[in-house]
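Case study 2.
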Amino acid sequence: HTSLGSLGMFEGGAQGICESLMSCVTDSGTLMMPALVKYPADGEDYIYIPEKTPVNVGTVPETFRCLPGVVRSLDPTHSFCVWGKDKHKYICNHHKLPTMHRNNPLGLLEQDGGYCLLVGCPEKTTFMHVVETACGAQCLGARAEEYKAIINNRLVKLRGWGWRNGECRALRHD
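Prediction:
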């Protein structure tokens, strides 16, 4: 997770940050960013299109999503974008598993010895949901909601996390 504003004036802005991270990781490594979307409002006719649906967790991941060579998982609400070596390995089954399953993109990255980098937003780590799911303490219902998506020019239905009323319990300080 990255807060662009926390970095002040970064040369090249969001694209400069992405390109800097990519040059550090190189194409023999892997760079992953959350690509969560705006959760559809009740009654909204939402269709997830991985190549077009904007990321709703900041300018840096939205910029990353649009860069050449970046691929996106098919989870309709909590997708991830990945670039580099074995990028398809990390996303190929995400839509077949519970959103934050231990074999989702983040869980696989952790199993491979990957790291989480939080820039200017230390309280916002999506990885905590992988831990919650592994421990049976999910803050959201596993694959509880169905969404329309366009995959390979076909309208399909994908399942995602069910939403909750209120904040995630893991973020409550009480």
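The two ends are 24 Å apart (CA to CA).
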